[in-house]
Design brief:
By secondary structure, this protein is α+β, with helices and mostly antiparallel strands. It has 4 helices and 3 strands; from the N terminus they run αβααββα. The protein has a 3-stranded antiparallel β-sheet. A hairpin with a 2-residue loop joins strand 2 and strand 3.
């Protein structure tokens, strides 16, 4: 999965909007977002971790058995804002 694939882009767009009015966004909220429902849960987990590892999202994550169990995004980084300008 690449940063510019539809799943990570949809998640970034959702997080950007949601974090304007909330202090944090959970994994479950991302999965329930209208633009993200069409993606498999496993892909959403991979995309969230990809965004965090690439420094686009400030977040805490927890893994178990190589699966993302918990994810809480608390902000979009400057690199994340630059990424969003292209989308």
């Amino acid at each position: 999965m690449q940063l510019h694939d539809p799943c990570p882009v949809s998640i970034m767009l959702f997080l950007n909007e949601a974090l304007k009015s909330k202090k944090s966004v959970s994994f479950n909220e991302v999965m329930a977002a209208p633009g993200c429902k069409k993606f498999p849960v496993k892909d959403i987990g991979k995309a969230l971790e990809l965004l965090r590892r690439n420094g686009l999202v400030k977040a805490a994550s927890k893994f178990g058995c190589s699966e993302l169990l918990e994810f809480t995004a608390t902000g979009i980084t400057e690199a994340g804002r630059e990424f969003l300008k292209g989308h």
